[in-house]
Design a protein that fits this description.
It is a single chain. The chain is mainly alpha-helical and about 180 residues long. Among the domains are: about 1-10 and about 25-50, no CATH class; about 55-140, Arc Repressor Mutant, subunit A (Orthogonal Bundle), CATH 1.10.10. It is about 60% helix and about 10% strand. A two-stranded antiparallel ribbon has the order 1-2.
């Protein structure tokens, strides 16, 4: 487990080579420390929820996989969306299928491929699992101001939008609607 205390965000007072024109070097965060702090915080959050998730025959990876099935019904697209190796996705799918959380169906015309569909039981455990994760998050945010949460939300959304745009450009789909 990552030591959360040693991964606290540090700001750098040295100039950043990546600073945008006009940005103050004193306001540029040490990106590596920020990344480590986020990973440590997420790891701690998810680890704290695992015992409750296990009572549902679930873990956080399977919860995320099930949460994406409505928009990613192929193992290959799930692997990309979750940044997870395909063999890991295969193992998660097999376990989720054995627990009745998803259904695997052959793709007509291609016996090598199959699509995945979340079952009613899968939707139930996603709802319950999401509640578990949200409660764990709430316990960590109880002393964080609403203003700070809104600011964090804006930053995360901006990063996500930029990532989506860059992915569209890389895939050659930018500007297509």
């Amino acid at each position: 487990m990552i030591d959360v205390a040693s991964s606290r965000l540090r700001t750098s007072s040295r100039p950043s080579a990546q600073a945008a024109p006009g940005e103050s070097a004193n306001r540029i965060a040490d990106v590596w420390s920020l990344l480590l702090a986020n990973i440590a915080g997420l790891t701690d959050l998810l680890s704290s929820a695992e015992p409750e998730l296990a009572r549902l025959s679930l873990d956080h990876k399977t919860l995320f996989l099930l949460s994406l099935l409505d928009t990613h019904d192929q193992p290959s697209t799930l692997a990309r969306a979750l940044a997870t190796p395909r063999p890991t996705i295969t193992a998660l799918v097999k376990r989720a299928e054995a627990n009745g959380f998803l259904q695997r169906d052959a793709v007509p015309g291609d016996l090598r491929r199959f699509s995945l569909t979340i079952t009613p039981r899968g939707r139930e455990v996603v709802s319950t699992g999401r509640g578990i994760i949200e409660r764990a998050l709430h316990r960590r945010l109880h002393n964080v101001s609403e203003r700070d949460i809104q600011a964090f939300t804006r930053v995360v959304n901006a990063i996500a939008m930029r990532s989506a745009t860059e992915a569209d450009v890389a895939a050659g789909t930018a500007g297509r609607g």
